[in-house]
């Protein structure tokens, strides 16, 4: 079921909320989680019933491994953890990448292996990572498995099931099973609804409009046509707008939904397109994925490499290559591929890996000098633009059907010879300049550049887990905050109405549902 | 090559909290390429721009080598504040 569907908003959500609060009122605490898990399974089953069994099997198997990890120590524990991770990755691999490998094998070897098309199970990329994190946390002694219903609630809770945020057992359990459950219901419902409304608006009004401007150009590229300068930039910019508002809109909706149940989720976005460097961008784009990379991939890889380099007495730049550039590029190739079984995602990951390495290199190289002369306002504008252009260029291949399509669009972005012909297509007056895509891009870019993000708008109500860490980051030029007053009630109503009304333009899936 | 002053002090060290804090601050400044930084028990990566996941690993390995100890992945992951590092070094190097 999609968050941006009428049956979700008007049927599933009200019934689930009513059941949840009735059970709390009636004091039937033990039934609450049975109810929440069952409702979430219905939510998932609407899409494809057989895969519910896969989800349940994965959940039970991981819980069993978690129990084992808690009992064992030392070698046995390490082997079981490795086994658990391998099993999770193997299941993901079969459902997500088997077709890709067979196709590429056939293409390279000229053989003709056949494998029926395997339908990607919704949410599998996310619940795989979330459960791997759980296993590692148990092995590290940070959490203990505390009952299969609790674990099921943690994995299957519908607001974060399909596409994150990737949550951690230790941050969810105190909320679900603490004493505060069901308190401040009215406040949580109101704040949750406001966050949900913003997310829905981002998705149906902004992201789906951006798609209408971007998609035709990608279709042209897929048809093998040559792409001109303006069209190529329109494709790059509009798709970046689409991706940001689509995925951050989805994440806001997840946060808002969970909040209606009195649960706070960690943020996935904090104005990433307002970042002045790629490093900063990745701290604020898909935050829970980035945290997963740091804690469970980067650290186990880089710690031994750094020890190795330090023992050999490597110099500064040798260390940089060994412990920064090489692991970063490798991890981002893997993370790119995690998004989808296609070469486009590998190229996307490789580009970001290189961006980050260049960024780190530059930082290390210029550290001393930067401390003496801080960058001025003009430098900052340049850094912001450079970051955006890099991000948009990588997003082209993220969106394109194939790498050759992306190359056609990149070629278009650099077709500066078109500039000579530009005066003839340029508008004669200001009114003409405000074509539809131009106006849309202007509005969307100013929203990104100057306006508060969702958690900043809801800042008075502790909208996310770990709000203290974010409240002073990327402050908006134009600041305002939601409060429970009549004007804000009207605004929320209008935003929600527009969000729902725009569903009628045609429901579109969230981009990240494909991953 | 003559040993660095850091190593000299390590050999003569007395393992109390004040001296470990002092030594760790010097290692921290060295790794992060900072001069004169004030670290308190509650200082976190949020407070210091240069302290990110990359430099955190370099810091930890420098501490390992300085004290001849070894941290596990779980321990490295659990070190959020400067005070956590001081406390862990005190228990491990004692």
Describe the protein in words.
- The complex is a heterodimer of chains A (515) and B (94).
- Chain A is globular.
- Chain A has 22 helices and no strands.
- In chain A, helix 13 (316-339) runs antiparallel to helix 14 (343-372).
- Chain A has helices at residues 6-25, 29-45, 50-71, 74-109, 124-139, 148-156, 158-161, 169-177, 185-222, 229-260, 278-284, 287-312, 316-339, 343-372, 377-399, 403-413, 418-425, 430-433, 436-450, 454-457, 467-470, 486-501.
- By secondary structure, chain A is mostly helical.
- Chain A has two domains: 6-109 and 119-186, no CATH class; 188-302 and 337-514, no CATH class.
- Chain B is mainly α and 94 residues long.
- Chain B has a single domain (5-93), classed as ACP-like (Non-ribosomal Peptide Synthetase Peptidyl Carrier Protein, Chain A), CATH 1.10.1200.10.
- Chain B is built from five helices and no strands.
- Chain B has helices spanning 5-11, 17-32, 53-67, 73-78, 82-93.
- The A-B interface holds A 139-142, 279, 294-295, 298-300, 302-303, 306-307, 310, 319, 323-324, 360, 367-368, 469 and B 33, 46, 50, 52-54, 57-58, 60-62, 64-65, 72-74, 76-78.
- Chain A: The chain crosses the membrane at residues 6-24, 31-47, 53-69, 81-98, 118-136, 148-169, 181-201, 317-335, 341-359, 380-398, 433-452, 486-504.
- Chain A: Belongs to the membrane-bound acyltransferase family.
- Chain A: One of its GO terms (biological process) is alginic acid biosynthetic process.
- Chain A: Keywords: Acyltransferase, Alginate biosynthesis, Cell membrane, Membrane, Transferase, Transmembrane, Transmembrane helix.
- Chain A: InterPro entries: Ac/AlaTfrase_AlgI/DltB, AlgI, MB_O-acyltransferase, MBOAT_fam.
Helix content of chain B: 55-70%
- Our count of helices of chain A gives 22
Question: Runs of chain A with pLDDT <50, length 5+?
Answer: none
The whole-angstrom Rg of chain A is 24 Å
**Can you identify the CATH class of chain B?**
Mainly Alpha
Q: Mean of the pLDDT scores of chain B?
A: 82
**How many structural domains can be distinguished in the coordinates of chain B?**
1
Total number of β-strand segments of chain B?
A: 0
Give the radius of gyration of chain B: 13 Å
Number of strands of chain A: 0
Which structural category do the helix and sheet elements of chain A fall into? mainly alpha
- Main interface by residue count: A-B, 22 and 19 residues
Membrane topology (chain A): Multi-pass membrane protein
InterPro entries (chain A): Ac/AlaTfrase_AlgI/DltB (IPR024194), AlgI (IPR028362), MB_O-acyltransferase (IPR051085), MBOAT_fam (IPR004299)
Pathway (chain A): Glycan biosynthesis; alginate biosynthesis
Protein name (chain A): Probable alginate O-acetylase AlgI
């Amino acid at each position: 079921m999609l968050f941006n569907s009428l049956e979700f908003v008007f049927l599933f959500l009200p019934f689930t909320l009513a059941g949840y609060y009735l059970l709390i009122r009636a004091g039937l605490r033990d039934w609450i989680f049975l109810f929440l898990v069952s409702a979430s399974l219905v939510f998932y089953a609407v899409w494809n019933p057989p895969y519910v069994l896969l989800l349940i099997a994965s959940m039970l198997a991981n819980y069993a491994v978690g129990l084992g990890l808690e009992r064992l120590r030392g070698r046995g524990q390490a082997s079981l953890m490795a086994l658990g991770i391998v099993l999770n990755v193997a299941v993901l691999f079969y459902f997500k990448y088997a077709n890709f490998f067979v196709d590429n094998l056939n293409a390279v070897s000229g053989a003709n292996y056949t494998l029926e098309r395997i339908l990607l199970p919704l949410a599998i990329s996310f619940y795989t990572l979330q459960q791997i994190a759980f296993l590692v946390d148990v092995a590290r002694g940070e959490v203990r498995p505390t009952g299969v219903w609790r674990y099921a609630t943690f994995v299957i809770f519908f607001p974060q099931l399909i596409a994150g945020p990737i949550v951690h057992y230790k941050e969810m359990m105190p909320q679900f099973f603490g004493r505060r459950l069901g308190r401040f219901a009215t406040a949580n419902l109101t704040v949750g609804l406001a966050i949900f409304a913003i997310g829905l608006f981002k998705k149906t009004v902004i992201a789906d409009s951006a798609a209408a401007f971007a998609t035709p150009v990608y279709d042209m590229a897929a048809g093998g046509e040559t792409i001109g300068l303006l069209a190529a930039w329109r494709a790059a910019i509009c798709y970046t707008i689409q991706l940001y508002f689509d995925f951050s809109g989805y994440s806001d909706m997840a946060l808002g939904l969970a909040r209606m149940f009195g649960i706070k989720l960690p943020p996935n976005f904090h104005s990433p397109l307002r970042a002045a460097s790629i490093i900063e961008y990745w701290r604020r784009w898909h935050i829970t994925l980035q945290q997963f990379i740091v804690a469970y991939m980067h650290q186990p890889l880089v710690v031994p490499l750094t020890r190795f380099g330090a023992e050999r007495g490597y110099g500064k730049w040798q260390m940089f290559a060994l412990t920064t550039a090489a692991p970063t590029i490798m991890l981002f190739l893997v993370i790119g591929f995690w998004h989808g079984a296609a070469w486009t995602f590998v190229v996307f990951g490789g580009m970001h890996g290189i961006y980050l390495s260049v960024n780190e290199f530059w930082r290390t190289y210029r550290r001393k000098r930067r401390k003496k002369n801080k960058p001025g306002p003009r430098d900052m504008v340049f850094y912001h633009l450079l970051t955006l252009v890099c991000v948009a260029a990588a997003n082209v291949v993220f969106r394109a059907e194939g790498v050759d399509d992306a190359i056609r669009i990149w070629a278009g972005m650099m077709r500066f010879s078109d500039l000579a012909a530009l005066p003839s297509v340029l508008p004669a007056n200001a009114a003409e300049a405000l074509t539809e895509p131009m106006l849309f891009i202007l509005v969307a870019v100013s929203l990104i550049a100057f306006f508060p993000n969702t958690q900043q708008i809801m800042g008075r109500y502790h909208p996310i887990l770990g709000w203290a860490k974010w409240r002073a980051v990327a402050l908006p030029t134009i600041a305002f905050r939601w409060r429970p007053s009549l004007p804000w009630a009207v605004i929320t109503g209008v935003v929600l109405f527009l969000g729902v009304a725009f569903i009628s333009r045609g429901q579109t899936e969230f981009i990240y549902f494909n991953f | 090559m003559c040993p660095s002053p850091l190593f000299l002090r390590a050999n003569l060290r007395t393992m109390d909290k004040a001296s470990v804090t002092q030594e760790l601050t010097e290692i921290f400044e060295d790794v992060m390429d900072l001069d004169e930084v004030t670290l308190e028990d509650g200082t976190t990566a949020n407070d210091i721009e240069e302290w990110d996941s990359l430099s955190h690993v370099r810091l930890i390995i420098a501490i390992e080598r300085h004290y001849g100890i070894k941290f596990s992945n779980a321990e490295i992951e659990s070190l959020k504040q400067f005070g956590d590092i001081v406390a862990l070094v005190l228990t491990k190097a004692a």
